């Protein structure tokens, strides 16, 4: 996604106006009191930079920047229509979560993994209840508390919230200490009996004899016992990053003998 392009949806982003807070309040009052369309248009244009700043958070999704910008503008307009001037809150503070929410809904609704409308509705209601309970109690509510508010079984809340989560690639890096990255797949254990695994053939076993004791232990725990790198790290008393490096070095060394 090209966030750095100048023109988005026909809007020259390099020439977007920026208004001071007093002028924004004046325009808001004018819009509320008289319904002045020119004031509304000026106010929208002066806040398009908010939309630009938000869509940069989603630049790793592979989505079309023009589509995200248009969706973000819908969120901006909703924020304008619902903003309460009597509250001691800056418009940008109120608008940014609205814009983010609109974009997230768009991404969820257009996800390649389709989720039923009823399930999405339960999930969105659960999120609204969660936000309300956090505001009321200043702490994260449990799933049981959310389910009680919605008067539905706890399992339905869990299922609905899981359904709207974005899928994660097995090759997405989750940690990097300056060396080799650790990926999601490195965190996944395999409890199946891999009878036909390539590690169990004679050639691999012979190649493992060329490794030192710690490398043998790591590969045995990882590929024969199906342990995660974190589990291996805890068992032998080193960091997960070290396990990752030793594992890759050992596999590379074994390739010479296979």
TrEMBL record:
| One Pfam family recorded for the sequence | Sigma70_r2
- Origin, by domain of life? Bacteria
Q: Indicate the segments forming the RNA polymerase sigma-70 domain, all copies.
A: 67-80, 228-254
User: By its UniProt entry, which InterPro entries does this protein fall under?
Assistant: RNA_pol_sigma-70_dom, RNA_pol_sigma-B/F/G, RNA_pol_sigma-G, RNA_pol_sigma70, RNA_pol_sigma70_r2, RNA_pol_sigma70_r3, RNA_pol_sigma70_r4, Sigma-70_RNA_pol_init_factors
Alphabetized CDD domains for the sequence: Sigma70_r4 (cd06171)
Provide this UniProt record's keywords sorted from A to Z: DNA-binding, Sigma factor, Sporulation, Transcription, Transcription regulation
Q: What does this protein do?
A: Sigma factors are initiation factors that promote the attachment of RNA polymerase to specific initiation sites and are then released.
Which NCBIfam families is this protein grouped with? Answer: PRK05572.1, PRK08215.1, SigBFG, sigma70-ECF, spore_sigG
- What's this protein's family per the entry? Belongs to the sigma-70 factor family.
The molecule here is called: RNA polymerase sigma factor
